[in-house]
Design a protein that fits this description.
Elements: H1 4-16, E1 21-25, E2 28-31, H2 37-49, H3 58-76, H4 85-93, H5 97-108, H6 112-130, H7 135-141, H8 147-158, H9 162-167
Antiparallel strand pairs: 1-2
Helix pairs in contact: 3-5, 3-6, 6-8
């Protein structure tokens, strides 16, 4: 689950099944009751109809947690952690980073670092469009070592310089659900 709309949809499906939740976060739900097999199947089918998936596989759930940590950190947190991301992720999930990295790469076909970079660049696009911060402030906010480093990564991912992107009339951003 990436968007607020997805969370609302899950809440509605749980309500229709008479289930109560403790917490609905990005990609996970904590349910108060013990869920029966029949309820689980109904929930699974209802979510599939809406384009969502109920995951049972532990590895798939771990991959989703990795994605959700990155999405939450980049798009929804005011402050990106100042520690190395690999240490942050390992601490948060209580797994060795090498294991997480290998699992993610095997499953998703890209590295965690590339997934993180794609989301950082999407955040840069958002901040450029809002036009409240200059490039120096954006690079500082997203913990880039310099504006040049941010610009190089931006060009590598988008094919455009940040200034050219800013000058475009129709700035294209990808919805989080499509990333």
């Amino acid at each position: 689950m990436v968007s607020i709309r997805c969370k609302m949809l899950v809440k509605e499906e749980l309500k229709q099944l008479g289930l109560h939740y403790v917490n609905i976060g990005l990609g996970e739900v904590e349910i108060m009751e013990t869920i029966s097999h029949a309820q689980r199947e109904k929930l699974k089918q209802a979510l599939l109809i809406s384009g969502l998936e109920l995951m049972d596989d532990k590895k798939a759930m771990l991959i989703e947690k990795i994605k959700n940590i990155i999405i939450e950190m980049i798009h929804y947190s005011e402050e990106i952690p100042k520690v190395k991301f690999s240490d942050y992720l390992s601490q948060k999930l209580d797994y060795d980073y090498t294991y997480l990295s290998n699992l993610f790469s095997e499953t998703e076909g890209i590295t965690i670092e590339h997934f993180l970079l794609i989301h950082k660049i999407e955040k840069v696009k958002e901040l450029i469009i809002y036009d409240e911060l200059n490039l120096t402030e954006i690079s500082y906010k997203l913990h880039y070592s310099s504006v040049a480093h941010l610009s190089n990564q931006f060009k590598k991912i988008t094919g455009l310089t940040p200034s050219f992107f800013k000058a475009l009339k129709n700035k294209k951003r990808k919805p989080l659900e499509d990333m």
